[in-house]
Design brief:
The protein is of the alpha+beta class. The chain is built from 2 helices and 2 strands.
Length: 61
């Protein structure tokens, strides 16, 4: 499960609702959840390079 609004957003004070309320959750694939968590923590996703030496475009959700 993924939080639509990050848990940190609730902890920082802008909201008083429960972050685990069903309207704030969505089902996603594990790989997507890990990528989004890394982005929220400030990491940049690695650029994949194809066999031809050019970046590989990936479908983003």
């Amino acid at each position: 499960m993924d939080h639509i609004k990050p848990i940190a957003w609730f902890k920082s004070g802008p909201a008083t609702a429960d972050p685990d309320f069903p309207d704030s959750l969505r089902a996603v694939q594990t790989e997507f959840h890990e990528q989004m968590t890394a982005i929220h923590k400030g990491y940049k996703p690695a650029i994949r390079i194809g066999l031809d030496g050019f970046p590989v475009e990936e479908l983003r959700i």
